[in-house]
Amino acid sequence: MGSPSPFLLITLVLGFSFATYNLVTMVMHNRSISKPIVDDSNGGMFIDPVIEIPESVKKSKTAKLPFHVALTATDAPYSKWQCRIMYYWYKKQKDLPGSEMGGFTRILHSGSPDNLMDEIPTVVVDPLPAGLDRGYIVLNRPWAFVQWLEKATIEEDYILMAEPDHVFVTPLPNLARGGYPAAFPFFYIKPDQNEKLLRKFFPEEMGPVTNIDPIGNSPVIIKKDLLEKIAPTWMNVSLKMKDDPETDKAFGWVLEMYAYAVASALHGVQHILRKDFMLQPPWDLDIAKRFIIHYTYGCDYNMKGELTYGKIGEWRFDKRSHLRGPPPRNLPLPPPGVPESVVTLVKMVNEATANIPNWDVR
């Protein structure tokens, strides 16, 4: 493998003409990365041995490195009840042994305050100009982070980008190591299988498409100064991808995830891939040293405890069943035989809803 190439000056002219933001020339370092760093649950770090990891990164961490928890949200009832559960479990886990969670911010990109301002620490930012997201609400996420980073005073040097449908199962330490952010690898983010599309946004001068990590923006723990550099690029790449019909059709609801991965690679940023960062019921069956439950998928089972695979089950938990308001308190537990991950999720939802005042308020 050849040595990394010299610094490469790249002018990203992405052609977006909306009044709220305009990206200017950026300087990026073209690094050649053959394989992603992977960190296992025991703290071991692995990488292609040709690429040397700095000794400071290899050494075990001793001092605590708190990170700020940040999630983007709207003022829709669907978003609100998830944020309330997420914030409840943040407060439960924050001060337990092993946690390095610091402050918390809900970045509300609806443009005006809502009725959770006194319950959850919140910063209000503007949505994208009308029509620019074209019904893809997640496109507001990078723009929300750009605004928040510009206007907020953030005490911590690291930031966890989280989502409303995350539940902290155990106290979360800082999984990042210096200039290497930590991220969860998604099986459906496949840069090597989408080279033709990605070359529209990641030119050949930047190296192979395998420099693009198989990640989204969440969950990611990253140094604040790195995110300040990446966020504007992430926003502009997201808009450029959405504006390209071929890319928009191919990437669909994961378009913004690809945009973050590309933006990071454009800045020469490589992530430590942590499979133990998160689990996703019903496909991940047990908790086993994981830190976050992500309940993005519906969980449908028959009364024998068997997954019904795409069919509505006799027992189910699906966040999309509660688009217009919060789920009721004391949800029924799943039948015997259902995996630990699903049982734990429902118990944690029930505990949160039992203890959050005025739960039925939308």
UniProtKB/TrEMBL annotation:
The chain crosses the membrane at residues 6-24. It is a single-pass membrane protein. Its main location: membrane. Residues 67-360 form the Hydroxyproline O-arabinosyltransferase-like domain. The keyword Transmembrane applies. It is found in: Membrane. Coiled coil: none annotated. Keywords: Glycosyltransferase, Membrane, Transferase, Transmembrane, Transmembrane helix. It comes from the Eukaryota. This is Hydroxyproline O-arabinosyltransferase-like domain-containing protein. It comes from Hibiscus sabdariffa (roselle).
